[in-house]
Design goal:
By secondary structure, this protein is an alpha+beta fold. It starts with a strand and ends with a helix. It is globular. The protein has twelve helices and seven strands. The relative contact order is 0.15. The protein has a seven-stranded antiparallel sheet with strand order 1-5-6-7-3-4-2. The chain has one domain. Strand 3 and strand 4 form a beta hairpin.
């Protein structure tokens, strides 16, 4: 975890504008995959809108809604109730193989229940961190996975191709999920940005990072590999990275 100004995380990063166009297309074509909101989340939408206007990142609209914020923010986000840590909805156009609609209304412990050993090992630490989260600061962290394509939207209903069988590094992408945690008056806002990077590119440009990645993949427990959709591919990829590091092109 590290601290940063929250407005920097939610500001526009993509000068081309293509990321926001892609997000708006998903909102227009498949809104049922992107947006969910519980009654508890309605006040959080208003507080998010006020914050975005304060940061001068949101233009005035006739309607204050999740969809209107989403059409102007590159980042995805979810809401958590600050007392029960129940997921109160949000907008996630680029999920990492999870379903916002099915998760809304569940507690953080229930959502994390599908992650092998996570709740048992650090569930209480996560809750303690969220309870103590101060206003006015964003706390940032990264999560990661591997995918077969660089597509941003990995909603389960889209049936994206899985990593199966021996694969080359050109076919595999390191999917970095940048996360920001921010306290609102009535709850917690968690921002999400997705950055897919070719594993081949990681090997060529950041060999030490590639070496650490190979080490984690090679020693990954079976339950974690299954959760990340890697099955046995984690060891194939680990070996391919080691081979590429020993014999650089």
């Amino acid at each position: 975890m590290r601290r940063d100004a929250p407005e920097a995380f939610f500001a526009k990063h993509d000068s081309s504008g293509e990321l926001l166009v892609q997000k708006q297309q998903w909102l227009d074509q498949r809104p049922e995959l992107c947006v969910a909101l519980s009654p508890e989340g309605e006040r959080l939408v208003e507080e998010t809108w006020a914050l975005g206007r304060k940061w001068e990142q949101l233009e005035p609209q006739s309607e204050t809604s999740v969809q209107e914020i989403a059409r102007q923010w590159e980042a995805d986000w979810i809401y958590l109730d600050s007392t029960t840590f129940t997921l109160a909805g949000g907008c996630v156009c680029f999920p990492s193989s999870w379903n916002l609609q099915e998760s809304t209304g569940k507690t953080l412990a229930q959502v994390h229940g599908v992650v092998p050993e996570l709740e048992e090992q650090i569930g209480e630490r996560i809750n303690r961190f969220l309870r103590r989260l101060p206003e006015g600061q964003a706390f940032l962290r990264e999560n990661w996975g591997l995918t077969r394509t660089k597509d941003l939207n990995y909603h389960p209903r889209l049936n994206r191709p899985r990593i199966e069988g021996p694969v080359s590094l050109e076919e595999v992408f390191l999917r970095i999920e940048h996360q920001a945690f921010l306290r609102l008056p009535s709850g917690i806002l968690m921002g999400i940005r997705i950055e897919p990077v070719s594993v081949q590119q990681v090997v060529q440009q950041a060999p030490e990072t590639a070496r650490r990645l190979a080490g984690q993949l090679g020693t990954m427990p079976k339950a974690v590999a299954h959760y990340k959709g890697l099955e046995e591919a984690n060891r194939w990829i680990s070996g391919a990275i080691d081979e590429a590091l020993r014999n650089p092109a």
